[in-house]
Design a protein that fits this description.
Residues 396-412 have a biased composition (Basic and acidic residues). This protein is an alpha/beta fold. It is built from 15 helices and 12 strands. The chain has helices at residues 12-15, 38-44, 51-59, 61-82, 96-102, 127-144, 156-167, 186-192, 214-224, 242-252, 265-269, 305-319, 325-362, 394-402, 435-439, and strands at 148-150, 173-176, 199-202, 205-206, 211-212, 228-231, 256-260, 283-287, 298-302, 366-367, 379-383, 431-433. The strands form 3 sheets. It has a 7-stranded mixed beta sheet with strand order 1-9-8-7-6-2-3, with helices on both faces. The longest helix is centred in the C-terminal third of the chain and has 38 residues, at 325-362.
Length: 446
């Protein structure tokens, strides 16, 4: 199965009701109507056009100019990003089917429910919505080998926040990966808001192995007896020692291990990274749109009924009311796609990332984890030269190097794919990734 990307210059996928290979929420009228006079626009727009758009088209030039500017900006964005090799490790490309589902009638519907019973809906007209969510629930549990799943978080961040709010109390001790280890630092951010103060300490991190240090972590856990230990990283090169940490948590009795798998969920789904629940983690929290090429959103997986019940009560109604039903349908489609093609996709994604790391190292870049093959995921991390560390911010340097900045030099032509012909390093200590390149069918089709 291939996953095509809209060709540069094809603006019909943005403004037309019959879109191209990449599906974007369609405009009710096609783009030419926005490039004409208000009188001609009024004549062109059929009586079946939704009334809000018909009123805009009949109201004058300013409104049409605004719509034309909006469509032009979206078109320009898609042409620009579609013509560049995206090495942002946390972004991906979803299939046209997912785009259709995200733009379906579900996007405007409500179907929220309390507790864990998917059939106890607060709104009418949810017969098929319930069946869609039951299908997504079954697919997620099957793919990740979990007894329970919570699909309502609107992001991976909110999924982690829900777990913390449900299982910790103000003043509790939380251990999590620090910034140097690529940690998302969810507990630290929540505590910094002053609304939910926690005592947050950094997990010991081994920079040479680029993973959590298991021995020092167990010693710290025995000393501090934390309520929560949060594993996971945004620069997730190598698996974290889940089994060792989970065994120590069970020894302590009251410690819960949360695995933030947002950046490697697609690799976990394909069995190509690690299986955190099978290794003893109490919870797997994640976003659904990074290496897993799904819609933006979040999920929580667990084998512990008591824990997931507490968390579901925190999710609804505490953090989420309407949980964006089109996202649920699109996530179900992404899980089916991963079931059918995920093994080859994940394997080639990792191979591309390893090839990228080796090629960058050959060209003089200081690539983290060289002694371990650079990476076991989709991510490659580069250390900037000391002389460059006082220069522009790493993100800006990376944007210029990879065409993610309109003012950059745009050295990101389509030939740069998965490390075969990588762009020269320009400084910038950051994660570079291969999933979008893999999804864009660079090289073999998935």
């Amino acid at each position: 199965m291939t996953f095509p990307v809209a060709a540069p210059g094809n603006s019909s996928s943005i403004a037309s009701c019959t879109s191209g290979s990449r599906v974007v929420t369609p405009m009710p009228c096609s783009e030419p109507w926005l490039n004409t006079s208000p009188i001609r626009a009024r004549r062109s727009c059929s009586t079946t056009t939704p009334s809000p758009v018909r009123e805009v088209l009949m109201s004058g030039r300013d409104q049409i100019d605004d719509l034309r500017a909006l469509v032009g900006l979206v078109t320009a964005h898609e042409q620009w990003r579609g013509g560049c090799l995206n090495l942002v490790a946390s972004e991906n490309i979803h299939s046209p089917l997912l785009g259709r589902l995200l733009a379906s009638d579900l996007s405007g519907r409500y179907g929220d429910y309390s507790g864990r019973d998917l059939r106890r809906r607060r709104y009418q007209g949810t017969r098929y919505i319930t069946e869609i969510e039951e299908l997504a629930d079954r697919l997620a549990r099957s793919m990740f080998g979990a007894r329970y799943v919570e699909l309502r978080p609107l992001s991976g961040h909110l999924a982690a926040i829900a777990a913390i709010l449900a299982l910790a109390r103000p003043g509790d001790m939380v251990l999590e990966v620090d910034r140097n280890g690529g940690g998302h630092r969810t507990a630290a951010k929540l505590s910094a808001s002053t609304h939910f103060p926690l005592v947050v300490r950094d997990l010991p991190f081994d920079p040479h192995a680029h993973t959590v240090d298991p021995e020092r972590t167990v010693a710290l856990m025995r000393e501090l007896r934390p309520r929560l230990v949060i594993l996971g990283s945004s620069t997730f090169l190598f698996p974290h020692p889940v089994r060792v940490v989970a065994d120590a948590a069970r020894e302590l009795g009251e410690t819960v291990v949360i695995y933030d798998g947002a950046h490697v969920l697609g690799l976990i789904a394909a069995g190509r990274f690690q299986a955190p629940l099978a290794e003893g983690a109490h919870l797997l929290v994640s976003s659904t749109h990074k290496v897993l090429p799904g819609p933006q959103g979040g999920l929580i997986l667990s084998d512990d009924e008591a824990l997931i019940t507490e968390i579901s009560e925190a999710v609804h109604p505490g953090l989420v009311a309407n949980h964006h039903l089109a996202h649920v349908a699109a996530l179900a489609a992404a899980l089916v796609e991963m079931r059918e093609t995920g093994d080859a996709y994940a394997r080639r994604t990792i191979e591309n990332a390893q090839a990228l790391g080796a090629a960058l190292a050959e060209r003089g870049a200081s690539v983290v984890g060289a002694h371990r093959g650079y990476t076991q995921s989709h991510t490659v991390v580069i250390r900037p030269p000391i002389a460059r560390r006082r220069g522009p911010p790493p993100g800006r340097a990376r944007d210029h190097a990879h065409g993610s900045d309109p003012g950059g030099d745009r050295r990101c032509g389509g030939s740069h794919c998965g490390g075969a012909h990588p762009p020269p390093p320009r400084g910038g200590h950051h994660a570079e990734g291969a999933p979008a390149c893999r999804r864009a069918a660079c090289g073999e089709a998935v």
